[in-house]
Design a protein that fits this description.
Shape: elongated
Mean pLDDT: 75
Distance between the termini: 122 Å
Low-confidence stretches: 371-394, 539-649, 795-800
Radius of gyration: 46 Å
Strand content: 5-15%
Helix content: 55-70%
Number of helices: 28
CATH architecture of the largest domain: Up-down Bundle
Structural class: alpha+beta
CATH class of the largest domain: Mainly Alpha
Strand order of the largest sheet: 4-3-2-1-7-6-5
Length: 834
Amino acid sequence: MKITVEFEECLKDSPRFRATIEEVEGDVGELESRLDKLVKLCIGMIDAGKAYNTANKQFVNGVRELAASSNKDEVIESSLAKFAESLQEMINYHTILFDQAQRSIKTQLMAFVKEDLRKFKEAKKQFDKVSEEKEAALTKNAQAPRNKQHEVEEATNILTATRKCFRHIVLDYVLQINVLQSKRRSEILKSMLSFMYAHLTFFHQGYDLFSELQPLMKQLGGQLDQLVVDAAKEKRDMEQKHSTIQQKDFSNDDTKLEYNVDADNGIAMEGYLFKRASNAFKTWNRRWFSIQNNQLVYQKKFKDNPTVVVEDLRLCTVKHCEDIERRFCFEVVSPTKSCILQADSEKLRQAWIKAVQNSIATAFREQGEEAEKLDRKSSTSTGSLDSGGEPKEKSLKGESALQRVMAIGGNACCCDCGQPDPRWASINLGITLCIQCSGIHRSLGVHFSKVRSLTLDSWEPELLKLMCELGNGVINQIYEARREEVGVRKPTPTDPRQEIEAYIKAKYVDRHFVRRPSDEELRSKVVSLSKQEKRLSGCSEHLPPRPPPPTPKLRPASNASAAAKGSEARRDSLFCPDELDSLFSYFDTSAKLRSMRSADSGIQNSADGSREMLATTPSTNSLPEAEAAEVPPMAMPATLPPPSPCKEVLIFSEPKEYSPGLQLYWASCARSLPDMAEALAYGAEVNWVNVEDDKRTPLIMAVQGGSLVACEFLLQNAANVNQQDAQGRGPLHHATILGHTGQVCLFLKRGANQNASDIDAKTPLSMAVDAANADIVTLLRLAKMNEEMREAEGPYMQSGDETYQDIFQDFSHMASNDPEKLNRYQQYDPPQRP
């Protein structure tokens, strides 16, 4: 320890000692003021920190309340709850930091000031006092006269005693000074070092906390990009809908109130009516009325329990009420009471009266035909047309799609980086991806990869089956065949994004790791695909069986016996006559078609013809009289027609050259999705044309093979749904010829042109009518009506009619999950060209 004041120097009490003492006392005084100021600042900092923590706690409570109010959105609720928990932890860390600051700065330094500096001040007081006494003794000793011996002795004794006392006091004072100077250094450093370690601990704890939170934040960041895109899309859709509604004429808005027995919520009709009270004052009150569960009820407020007006509509009747002063009134009469109601217009009154009458008729029909209705529910799926049916099966979404896709080999990890538990997929490649790789795939463009969420998006059944046909294992065998050979390491989830992005581009865009086949290998592959047994034999579980030979001659008189025999074996159509009549009546009477019919009466004729033909088809395979004039005589041959060229065995002839396009061509017919994916990886053109085989395309061959999934795979990879062969027939023509209802439904959803004609001037609809295929005729007619309705509504109507969408959705599910119900028709036999 360095001594500030020498002990020997203090005994001399020299001017040097006095100067040193004066300097030390000045330093100690300044130290005391600095320490007092630092302690006061620390107290202010701690108080401000406590106020910050209080405000931060209130903010975190607000985040928790927001999370609790977002219980309908699982992503927001779970994310905000996790964030609030992490912020609360940070508040706890802040509290610990401020407590440590109080202990290290405030407590320790205040103790140093109060104890050590207090001792120094007391020692200084004693030193100053004894110094004054010494000076007085010296002065008295010097003034003592020589001739007065007793005064001299007294002065000498006092001086001696004072010097002894001064010596002890000054040594203690110097000791206190040296100790204070030494302790000053250790106390200050100890206090500040403890405070800095508290900060170090605080920031380490915060780093560890947010390191655990970082994966969730990255995942949410990736989902946020998709949410922004979805929000922008929803905003555009809402703006279009807003503009569409704004341009509509609301003067006839009451015509939109229609009776719908098949409503999802069980409410057949609802709207506002005035009700006359049964009290003495006969007051009128406006209430919200509805017809549901065969009852007429009303509500004053939405949360109120409905008040039943008529418990059973089968026991009541409805009639106009013209004997009161108010207009547009009608009366519902039951055995126990009557209720007078008033609509807002004559059209609304007629609509309500008709709705009550229809509900009465429906109730009686349901009671009397329960057995037939149950049979129809078990045998068919007619979407919104089946009022008593079970809830319609919707597109698979969320965990259902995730579980089925993840069950495929290799799909449990990201196809490109190996990240476990992926939640995204590339639908045209058939692989699963993590959030980071999905963003990179999205940046490649849809011509390389189409990204969709396994948990947030809806999945059509044919698309889900496509994902289950391929998978990460199959695709990596194709796109990473030469990866080890070229010495490229597969990235891991912890690698920088730039490296993963470069790898994905090399894999899918440049296809550096694809092993190009030799000419002999390609030839062997094409020959193998062309010789598969199912394709050569022409039979498949997807192809419709050939029906028994028709009767020698079909006349109207023989229709009854044919219908009786057919009804015992099976239904020829998924729609019964009553359903078809309701269906086409819905389209014919809609306000949209009425406005079109006023401009063009041709639609009326088309709809009537469709309804008449289809209502007759289910009971007999002969065509109705109304369509007889439109169908050529050869459409219903008297004898069994010769085999159709489309169902004949496809003979493989040696091509001039072998190419990836030819492999794709035969793989599509053989329904081998891995070989199709391999051909595309080799560089095959998805719309490749086989000039040696009537200019057919892979999509047409997929139709010939009867695979709905193969068609979906080609369409997802940009196949042209309207490309025609040498006979002028597109995929929709071929699907109609073969009676593939599921493929017809798929092509119509993908924008196939049903008005296209082949070289014989035959459209798909005319082919379906010739083959008496009621389901395909129904789909084509509905698609045409929906298209005309969209054209009448203008550019703002994008999706078309909901009934049309429900019917096509039901056909899509049946084609993927129960195709046997659709494969029941004879195929169209095209006229033999000379």
